[in-house]
Each structure stands twice: as structure tokens, then as C-alpha cells.
Specification:
The protein is of the alpha+beta class and 314 residues long. 44% of the residues lie in helices and 23% in strands. The chain has eight helices and eleven strands. β10 and β11 form a beta hairpin.
Length: 314
Amino acid sequence: MRVLGDYRRTEATVADDRLAIASGDPELAELARAELPELEQRLVTLEAELKKRLIPRDPDDDRNVIVEIRAGTGGDEASLFAADLYRMYTKYAERMSWKQEILSSSPSEVGGFKEIIVQLSGVNVYRQMKFESGVHRVQRVPDTEASGRIHTSAATVAVLPEVEDVDVEVQEKDLRVDVYRAGGPGGQGVNTTDSAVRITHLPTGLVVTCQDERSQIKNRARALKVLRARLYDQKLQEAQAKYAAQRKSQVSTGDRSAKIRTYNFPQSRVTDHRINFTAHNLPAVMEGDLDALSGALLDADVAERLEALGAAER
């Protein structure tokens, strides 16, 4: 391991410099004192990097994800904000060279979304997106507000790792499948056939509906994909909640109802409440520049896990 080799060489050089300082040779001691502070700082950096590598990698980090965005409190403005979040994530996906596919959508009358479900596929998608789950709050003046009053609305985001049949077994006997005619926008071919599919998972009560495709078979396949992801996510939430209770984790709580972030348009500010991180570049964030937020959340998660690792060793 290259980092380990660098650490050992730096550690040996630091030891040599300390011996030189103690040797009583003025010229040698002066040279050692000059380079020691930089070497000691490098040793600290390398030690931190080694500790990071001791942290077990999240086995789901390489998975693709299913992102569910739903309008929350705030009426029409909440549905518009849900559409803004969808656009933000699609812009981020473009920056990351991820593939995108809408699995299901329910547009609102004002041009937003009551709900939209999208699949993102690529490299390290879950690693970069997993901390986006929770309640996102927006503070801004809606286009419909004549008096210029700031409104507060919300939308919820759930990021689910995509899983296969082998990861989550879904038995046919546990499913109730209903087919019906799709409603709302979608074109004549969609709305005149019984292509929409609603799948109810009887043991858990989870319900998934897909109606965007003209084919009933395709809608069923998409609904099953979302159902498997939700079932897997339930197990993850339980594990995260247990971890949070044990370690007082602020980043991964397993609580999808927790308010995690506020987007303040009048002040061009976005704040992540879990780590008290604020960025004053809201327009860039809404255009998909999530690098600073994502980096800060990943760093906070590493710090928490390192602290837990240290506590376990003590």
C-alpha cells in the first residue's frame, strides 16, 4: 500500500531528525529543526488517510439508485419545488455522466410534480447520492404571490439502492397486482388501454404504481424494480437508525421525515442542517453543482465512523 509506505518512510525520517536535534551537533540540529514541522504535519495527514482506509466500504456504494421525489407541504409551490429538485439532480447526473430514466411521474396542474421517480445509473451513484434522503425545504416568493411574501414549502426525497432479484426475494403469492387505464397526460395510446399497474406487497402494505409506459408488461417490470428497492431500503433504514442511536450519527439517521436542508432563495443560501454546512451559491446548486455539499457530507460521515472506530478501540 503506497500510503503505508509513505507513512513508514516519513515516520523514520521524523525519528532521524529528532535524534539529530538531540545529538548536540549544532549544524545537523539546525537542518533537522528546519524540516521537522513539515514532516510532522505530513505524518498527521498520512495517519488520517490510513485510518480512513481502515473504515469498511459501504457495500452499496457502487449500486445504481432509484430517486423518489414527492411534493410535501405547500400546495402548488411544493410541486414546483419537487420539479426543481428533479431538475437539480438531473443536472448533477449530467455532470457525473450518469444515465437517467424516469420510471414513474405524476405531474401537477401548475407544471410541477406531485411525484416523480427516476433511476440513475453509473459509477459510485449511491455513494454520491445516499445522503440526499429526507425533507428538503424551500423559502422563496412564489410566482403566484402578488404581494411578494416569502413562502415556505417542502418536498421529500428518498434515495434507494437499486437491487436485483437475488438481493430481495419477492414472492408472487405476496403480491396483489391491479391493472387499470392510465389517467392524466400521457397520450392517446396510454390512456385508452389498461396499461397502468398497481402492485401491493401484502406483507408490508407497500404500494407501487407505474403508468408511464404504454406496455402493461413494462409498467409491471418498473413497479417491481421500485418495490424491491423500497423493501431493501426498509432494511437499510432500520440498520441506519440503530447505528445512529448507538453512535449519535448526524448524517445517516434512517429517518426519512427529518428536515435535512433549506434552500433560501432571497439570500441565495443553501444550508444542510445535519452538519451545519452553508453555501452561498444557491443558483449554482440548483444547476446541479452539488460537489461542495456532497463532499462535506461524505467527510462528516468519515469523521463519524473514524470516531466510532476509535471508541471501539478504547
